[in-house]
């Protein structure tokens, strides 16, 4: 055979191979959106079996060659890689295509923690997962808006692009206590998810008490207890009053009630009283009682009042306020 | 023979029944102070309080009911769940007419053995030696209404139909604010304090893992009754975790794991701890003594005292506990005592006492 003959034979072989390859591929777009139906034209006569293998299931259907194969949108809900196969006799026509998520239509929102002290930087975290209408994670970048607002305060708002379907943010807690509305939303849609983060008062700040001697006890009472942002600490918070005198140590773990902690300590003629809430210490009061004699002592004691550690009844009692160090 | 045998049986039965009935009534008069105390306490041990009472001198000025309450407990106190297990007596002083006997008592109770030492005065009367039983005068609170309006915390958890992103109510934040590892009696002991930093109550436990030189686990233990498990907001509790038969030298580090659970709780009752002081008891040992005062209107059945001891640097050097076998009636002070090791007493600079409370019929 001549050289030209070889060239023609090779060309014919390539053309045949190309024809065969073309004939085995179904006419389906390479990429579809989730929930998007399509139709596949077929040729020839007789029957065949159509398979659609997707990430969420497999469909098998008998078809008549020559009629179009219709795939409903419901059958391509799940995003991912699909393989369509048309099997007729010994021949298989196949096509690999991809279904991508549709338009963003849903959010899942994780907000932590559910309770946070006020005025803490980066204390609140939010993670939003963006999905399309068929709960496929949106892999392309989508802006997500986060907003944190407490009643009577301006909301803090920020927009974050989602990466691989996830957008996250860390935000500082506000200065006011209350139920903060933490909202994640998709701009230009009505999609939003709301979580509630309870902003609570932090540690007590400037804890201060005063003492008043009664007939049988010394009544100690704090000023309204607030954190450093001015929020009242919640009722039920433990406040420890400690009295030290010659008879020993007396302690009461009082509970804050209506913003104030109050307790009764044993009456003493010379005592030091301190107050603490958790690891926060308050002021200290020294009480020295210059005994007026037996007669009328009880009545005199009952009238004693101490304010800011200073006796207010003309100096018969002596109380001194002082700053204190760490908790022992 | 056929008649004699039943008659003999009947007579024998009557005699035995009579013996069994009458025999306990025949009290052996105590012939010594020691015997009087022993006889009394042996009958308490056998829960025969009526017979035990007959060893008590009339000069004690105590009635049988008060004596019964003293040795058998009342108001659902720990003593009501206890029984006298062991008695050891020692005559401290004896003359022809009176004596003093020290009785070391071991009570078995729901929370383990409880040790008690009583110095009992004994007097000689016509019917033999009798014990002067000290009557503990307990103040009776006049009938009154004590308004209690402390809050309680209830919890609503997330519903089953919430989406997976919806947050639940979270457990309280707790923090170990101090920790110290010591070795004592061949045991490694982890001591410290933990604070509920949150605004809600929590049920708290502390786990500790000892890590050896090679980084492997040497042992894992948790705090049991050496801490207050229910912590209200900003409440601080001591904890003590014992690792028996361990050497501190073989420990490279300690991994601490505080666990907290959100639980419903009540801010009531408030128990004041008054006049805490370190004293020496009759045996010459150091004890931390004081009085507990229940400031609420509800009886606290079983008070559990936790004592934290600090050195001059403010470090926790020991944590010990004791159960009071008397219930805390409202507004009535009840004494308590916690044993302190004599070696420890030398380094203790300060201490703090807190009280756990167990109340029956809580929702009354």
Short recap of the structure:
Chain A has 328 residues and is mainly β. Chain A is built from 2 helices and 27 strands. Mean pLDDT of chain A is 82; it is low at 17-23 and 292-328.
- Can you tell me the residue ranges of chain A where pLDDT is under 50 for at least 5 consecutive residues? 17-23, 292-328
Biggest pleated-sheet summary of chain A: 8 strands, antiparallel
Number of helices of chain A: 2
Total domain units of chain A: 3
CATH architecture identity of the largest domain in chain B: Roll
Instruction: Count every beta strand of chain B, where a strand is a DSSP E run of 2 or more residues.
Output: 19
SSE map:
The complex is a heterodimer of chains A (328) and B (364).
Chain A: H1 3-23, E1 31-33, E2 38-40, E3 47-54, E4 57-64, E5 69-71, E6 80-88, E7 91-100, E8 104-112, E9 115-117, E10 124-132, E11 143-149, E12 156-161, E13 166-171, E14 178-185, E15 192-200, E16 204-205, E17 209-213, E18 217-222, E19 226-227, E20 238-245, E21 248-257, E22 260-266, E23 270-277, E24 280-289, H2 297-303, E25 306-307, E26 310-311, E27 317-322
Parallel strand pairs in A: 1-7, 9-15
Antiparallel strand pairs in A: 2-5, 3-4, 3-6, 6-7, 8-10, 10-13, 11-12, 11-14, 14-15, 16-19, 17-18, 18-22, 20-21, 20-23, 21-22, 23-24, 24-27, 25-26
Chain B: H1 4-22, H2 33-45, H3 49-53, H4 64-72, E1 83-94, E2 98-109, E3 112-125, E4 128-132, E5 152-153, E6 174-184, E7 187-196, E8 202-212, E9 217-222, E10 230-231, E11 236-243, E12 251-262, E13 265-266, E14 271-280, E15 286-294, E16 302-310, E17 316-323, E18 334-340, H5 342-347, E19 350-358
């Amino acid at each position: 055979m001549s050289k030209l003959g070889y060239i023609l034979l090779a060309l014919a072989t390539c053309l045949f191979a190309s024809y065969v390859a073309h004939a085995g591929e179904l006419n389906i777009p390479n990429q579809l959106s989730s929930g998007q139906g399509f139709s596949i034209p077929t040729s020839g006569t007789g029957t065949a079996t159509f398979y659609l293998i997707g990430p969420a299931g497999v469909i098998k259907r008998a078809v008549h060659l020559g009629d179009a194969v219709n795939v409903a949108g419901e059958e391509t809900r799940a995003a991912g890689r699909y393989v369509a196969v048309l099997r007729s006799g010994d021949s298989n026509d196949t096509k690999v295509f991809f279904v991508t998520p549709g338009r963003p239509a849903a959010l899942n929102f994780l907000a932590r923690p559910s309770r946070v002290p006020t005025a803490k930087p980066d204390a609140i975290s939010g993670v939003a997962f963006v999905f399309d209408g068929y709960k496929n994670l949106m892999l392309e970048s989508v802006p997500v808006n986060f907003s944190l607002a407490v009643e009577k305060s301006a909301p803090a708002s920020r927009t974050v692009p989602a990466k691989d379907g996830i957008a996250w943010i860390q935000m500082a807690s506000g200065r006011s206590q209350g139920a903060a509305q933490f909202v994640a939303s998709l701009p230009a849609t009505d999609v939003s998810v709301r979580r509630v983060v309870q902003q609570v008062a932090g540690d007590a700040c400037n804890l201060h008490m005063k003492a008043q001697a009664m007939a049988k006890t010394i009544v100690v009472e704090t000023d309204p207890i607030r954190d450093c942002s001015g929020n009242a600490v919640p009722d039920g918070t433990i406040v420890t009053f400690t009295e030290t005198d010659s008879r020993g140590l007396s302690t009461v773990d009082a509970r804050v009630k209506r913003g104030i902690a109050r307790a009764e300590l044993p009456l003493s003629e010379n005592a030091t009283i301190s107050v603490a809430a958790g690891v926060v210490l308050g002021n200290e009061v020294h009480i020295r009682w210059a005994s007026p004699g037996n007669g009328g002592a009880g009545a005199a004691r009952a009238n004693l009042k101490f304010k800011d550690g200073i006796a207010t009844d003309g100096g018969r009692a002596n109380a001194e306020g002082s700053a204190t160090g760490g908790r022992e | 023979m056929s008649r004699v045998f039943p008659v003999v049986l009947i007579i024998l039965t009557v005699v035995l029944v009579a013996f069994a009935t009458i025999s306990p009534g025949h009290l052996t008069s105590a012939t010594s102070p020691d015997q009087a105390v022993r006889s009394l306490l042996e009958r308490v041990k056998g829960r025969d309080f009526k017979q035990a009472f007959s060893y008590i001198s009339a000069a004690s000025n105590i009635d049988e009911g008060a004596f019964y309450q003293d040795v058998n407990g009342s108001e659902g106190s720990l003593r009501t769940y206890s029984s006298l297990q062991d008695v050891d007596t020692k005559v401290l002083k004896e003359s022809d007419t009176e004596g003093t006997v020290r009785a070391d008592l071991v009570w078995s109770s729901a929370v383990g053995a409880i040790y008690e030492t009583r110095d009992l005065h004994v007097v000689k009367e016509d019917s033999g030696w009798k014990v002067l039983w000290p009557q503990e005068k307990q103040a009776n609170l006049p009938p009154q209404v004590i308004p209690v309006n402390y809050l309680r915390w209830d919890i609503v958890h997330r519903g089953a139909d919430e989406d997976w992103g919806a947050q639940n109510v979270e457990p309280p934040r707790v923090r170990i604010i101090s920790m110290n590892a010591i070795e004592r009696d061949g045991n490694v002991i982890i001591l410290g304090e933990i604070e509920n930093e949150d605004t809600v109550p929590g049920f708290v436990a502390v786990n500790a893992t000892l890590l050896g030189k090679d980084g492997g686990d040497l042992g894992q233990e948790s705090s049991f009754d050496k801490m207050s498990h229910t912590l209200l907001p900003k409440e601080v509790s001591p904890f003590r975790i014992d690792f028996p038969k361990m050497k501190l030298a073989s420990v490279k580090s300690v991994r601490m794991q505080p666990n907290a659970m959100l639980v419903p709780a009540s801010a009531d009752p408030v128990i004041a701890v008054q006049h805490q002081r370190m004293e020496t008891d009759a045996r010459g040992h150091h004890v931390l003594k004081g009085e507990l005062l229940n400031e609420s209107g509800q009886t606290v059945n079983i008070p559990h005292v936790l004592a934290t001891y600090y050195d001059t640097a403010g470090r926790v050097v020991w944590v010990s506990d004791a159960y009071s076998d008397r219930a805390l009636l409202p507004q009535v002070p009840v004494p308590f005592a916690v044993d302190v090791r004599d070696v420890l007493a030398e380094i203790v600079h300060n201490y703090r006492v807190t009280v756990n409370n167990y109340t029956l019929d809580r929702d009354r």
